[in-house]
Write a structure and sequence with these properties.
The protein has about 210 residues and is α/β, with parallel strands linked by helices. The protein folds into two domains: about 1-30 and about 95-210, 3-Layer(aba) Sandwich (Rossmann fold), CATH 3.40.50; about 35-95, Guanylate Kinase phosphate binding domain, CATH 3.30.63.10. Helices cover about 45% and strands about 20% of the residues. It has eight helices and nine strands. The protein has helices at about 15-25, 55-65, 85-90, 105-115, 125-135, 140-155, 175-190, 195-210; strands at about 5-10, 30, 35-40, 55, 70-75, 80-85, 95-100, 115-125, 165. Strand 5 (about 70-75) and strand 6 (about 80-85) form a beta hairpin.
Length: about 210
Amino acid sequence: MRKGLIFIISGPAGSGKGTVVNIIRSKTNNVGVSVSATTRSPRPGEVDGVSYHFISREKFESLLNSGEIIEHTEYCSNLYGTMRSEVERITCEGLDVILEIEVDGAMQVKNLIGDKVVTVMLAAPGAEELERRLRGRGTETEESVRKRLTRAKAELSYAGKYDYFVTNETGRAEECADLVMKIMEAEHNRSSRHADFISEYIDGLETIIQ
């Protein structure tokens, strides 16, 4: 049976990772949806277990301390994180999980889970293009642009710790998504992930030969 893997997609603001992930989801049925946990209150229309797992801060911290939250962040005094039970539920069904998270969360997951995690860093084709994309949004102040560029510099310094580095060329997000999907498929064909099958195969041949 196909065993699901955890694919982490990271990249600075302006790298287009959200667009690429959405394209991948639209093209394959092999990716499950991991519902995050949060300590914030539900908003109108949100459903517990569908929108988020809404839990108390005490419960969140307990899960975090026991290793059941595999990555987390804090925003506006609320905690958000990925539950181990969610990714295990999906991968046990033979589906992959895509986590679109920042570099600090990516390193948390990689340290906790290791061999089931594949990390991909997306980036704009250059510093000038990244700046152009950020300014082109028309929603960023000068201070905000500078902060995002500074953050991008810090994030890209982690690129060497990622398994793959993919350039998302302007206007070619679909090609970028196709490349990431090829990476996903290649990872499923790593010989190390088929060690049990290979061993059984060899034993079967040995039985036939005898």
